């Protein structure tokens, strides 16, 4: 199977999972090769991430987006690499090591769909269909929804409790915000 075919299959599986169809787990390439291939999802995420980070959310101001595309790509790459490293230790600590690979595969591919959803309000704001307040509200609601989806996917792929899945989602959020504060 080539990269394009595997990507289409993985995104289809991720969509199933986001729609609470557990069959998506078996549709993913849950091999060691599939684990490493899942990191290529960053290729699909990077343009959306750059688009969202380039938007000047204060259109009446004279300031422009504060950081370069290279800065944002480095930030994305660090987040993309650090979270699985953190999860190596988290899954071992909670006796979930045998599910680590599956979690990362689900996490990586589902993030393509999650980031795509989060880009919608930014796009609507950028083209003038949503005012700043509307885009902010829409983004906030979608972010709440993505926290739930990340919780559900962690619980499902790691076969763990809701509490541990919640702690994982919170940890990922803290890592992302902390990393942006440290390097931004």
Radius of gyration: 17 Å
Would you tell me the structural class of the helices and strands? Answer: mainly alpha
Task: Detail the poorly predicted runs.
Answer: none
Query: What is the count of helical runs?
Result: 8
Overall helicity: over 70%
Please trace the helix and strand order, writing H or E for each element: HHHHHHHH
What's the end-to-end separation, in Å?
Answer: 39 Å
Number of domains: 1
- Which percent band covers the strand fraction? under 5%
Instruction: Specify the biggest β-sheet.
Output: none
The number of distinct β-strands equals 0
Globally, the shape reads globular
Average pLDDT reading = 92
Mind explaining what this structure looks like?
With 184 residues, the chain is mainly alpha-helical. Helix content is 77%, strand content 0%. It has one domain. The chain has eight helices and no strands. The N and C termini lie far apart (39 Å). The model has no long low-confidence stretch (mean pLDDT 92).
Secondary-structure blueprint of this entry?
Elements: H1 3-18, H2 23-27, H3 32-38, H4 42-54, H5 69-93, H6 100-126, H7 132-158, H8 162-183
Helix pairs in contact: 1-6, 3-6, 4-5, 4-6, 5-8, 6-7, 7-8
What labels describe this entry?
184 residues, mainly alpha
Summarize the structure.
The chain contains eight helices and no strands. With 184 residues, the protein is mostly helical.
């Amino acid at each position: 199977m080539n990269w394009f075919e595997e990507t289409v299959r993985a995104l289809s599986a991720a969509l199933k999972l986001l729609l609470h169809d557990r069959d998506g787990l078996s549709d993913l390439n849950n091999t060691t090769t599939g684990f490493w291939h899942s990191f290529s999802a960053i290729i699909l995420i990077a343009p959306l991430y750059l688009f969202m980070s380039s938007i000047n959310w204060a259109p009446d101001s004279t300031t422009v987006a504060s950081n370069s595309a290279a800065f944002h790509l480095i930030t994305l790459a660090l987040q993309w690499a650090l979270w699985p490293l953190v999860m190596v230790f988290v899954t071992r600590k909670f006796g979930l090591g045998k599910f680590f690979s599956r979690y990362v595969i689900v996490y990586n591919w589902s993030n393509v769909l999650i980031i795509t959803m989060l880009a919608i309000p930014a796009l609507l704001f950028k083209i003038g269909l949503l005012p700043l307040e509307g885009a902010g509200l829409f983004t906030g609601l979608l972010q709440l929804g993505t926290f739930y989806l990340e919780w559900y996917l962690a619980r499902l792929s790691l076969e763990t409790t809701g509490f541990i899945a919640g702690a994982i989602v919170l940890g990922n959020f803290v890592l992302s915000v902390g990393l942006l504060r440290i390097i931004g």
